Amino acid sequence: MAGRNHLYIPGPTNVPQSVLNAMHVQMEDHRSPAFPKLMLPLLQDLKKIFKTEAGQAFVFPATGTAGWEIALTNTLNLGDKILIYRFGQFSHLWAEMGKRLGFNMEIHNEPWGMGIPLDKLEARLKEDKNHEIKAVLATHNETATGVTSDIGGVRKAMDAADHPALLFVDGVSSIASIDFRMDEWGVDGAISGSQKGFMLPAGGALVAFSPKALARVETCNYPRCFLDLKDQMNANKDGYTPYTPNLPLLYGLRQALDLLLAEGLENVFARHYRLAEGTRRAIAAWGLKLCAQPGFESNTVSAIVVPEDQDARLVISAAFNKYNISLGAGLSEVAGKVFRIGHLGDMNDVSMLGAIAGVEMALLDSGIAIQPGSGVAAAIAYYRATA
Predict the structure, then answer these.
(1) Which of 1-5, 84-88, 248-252 has the least mean pLDDT?
(2) Which domains, and CATH codes, for the chain?
(3) Potential cystine with 241: which of 30, 132, 245, 247 (Cβ 3.0-4.6 Å)?
(4) Number of other residues whose CB lies within 10 A of the CB of residue 177
(5) d(Cα 166, Cα 171) in Å, to the nearest integer?
């Protein structure tokens, strides 16, 4: 098929050409005296993206899923109680990881389309008089349902309960796209991945930990090796890594950080809001609804519910096979019920208009009755008015 594939999934995202160019490098000696000139500034600039001065950032040659495991196994002991609200596929997977690693997972289920219930969280923590709960896991942006939770509100709930649990946040599809304030919100472990807002290929676990969390590393007795933060801290202080790094990814990260910081984080967040809002207006013009309930709408991915007598997989198939557009599928409980449009990373107004036009054709081809051009028109009107 002529032309390139148009990638509108919530990760991996499009990689800017300058980042691709930066990654096209010869291999080099990662133990040379010159290597810290690459590594040390990377770790410092990563802290700017996480919005932390007190915390420490790390790069693991792994994934966001590994970041979940890094947080748990470096700060908690086998059998510790962990609290999590499950309301989508990725909060589900984090909870299941905790079970498999031998932690005592306290899982509270919420309807898919909702986020973390702050009132319930506060009440539960107040009940925990003996502070048996050692960590709270919070999925900032639930990619499966297009739901964003209020992490600042989570911190307020924990403070209102005067609870000392660690706060770990899955920010894989939010950090570098949606406002995230590690220090201000009292986040102890922030977890992201290279392939979403950082506009890189998959393969990098980008994480940051508070001094409180790093202090636990010294006393945690959970066995670990490749994902041990102590090894990273010992090597990183001199600008090195404890094992062979993914050099092309590090050079790509250097360029990606330069792009994000040059645009300005507040501008990055505002751009993602505009792209998302234009998409939401298109969805409304089609007469369709989001999976996310009001107040939880994500600025990085929209999960669109199809009519009950339709199958979202047909929309995804038509988009890919006829128009060379990749859309996100519904996962687990929402499989066949939703399709997802990713609007994060290296995107602009025209990029999104292409996605919206392609989705309109796929909807019509799948037998879902919409007014042709309605979504495109609604998005154009919004983008022009807010440019």
Answers:
(1) 1-5
(2) 6-12+265-386 (3.90.1150.10), 17-262 (3.40.640.10)
(3) 245
(4) 33
(5) 16
Distance CA(159)–CA(211), nearest Å, equals 18
Question: What are 328-356's pLDDT values in tens digits?
Answer: 999 999 999 999 999 999 999 999 999 99
Question: Which tokens go with 33?
Answer: 């005296």
Distance CA 30, CA 26 (A): 12
Helix, coil or strand: residue 147: strand
Neighbours of 350 (CB within 10 A): 8
Backbone phi, psi, residue 196, to 5°: -120, -105
Give strand pairing partners of 107. 84
**Strand pairing report for 56-60 and 205-209:** antiparallel
Neighbours of 27 (CB within 10 A): 8
Using one digit for the tens of pLDDT, what is the confidence trace for 270-312? 999 999 999 999 999 999 999 999 999 999 999 999 999 999 9
Strands of 81-86's sheet in order across? 56-60, 205-209, 189-193, 166-170, 133-139, 81-86, 104-109
Residues 6+ apart with CB under 8 A from 374: 282, 285, 286, 360
73, exposed or middle or buried, with CB in 10 Å at 0-12, 13-18, 19+? buried
CA gap 89, 94 in Å, rounded: 9
* Cα separation, 5 vs 47, whole angstroms: 34
* Rounded Cα distance, 67 and 128, in Å: 27
Sheet arrangement for strand 301-305? 6-8, 325-329, 338-342, 301-305, 289-290
Contact between 194 and 206 under an 8 Å Cβ cutoff? The reply is: yes
Task: Name the pLDDT band for 2 (thresholds 50, 70, 90).
Answer: confident
Side-chain-side CA neighbours of 179 within 13 Å: the count stands at 9
Residue-wise pLDDT for 133-169, tens only, equals 999 999 999 999 999 999 999 999 999 999 999 999 9
Token pair 């509100």 in the structure block, residue: 153
Token pair recorded at residue 210: 């508070």
Coil, strand or helix at 220:
coil
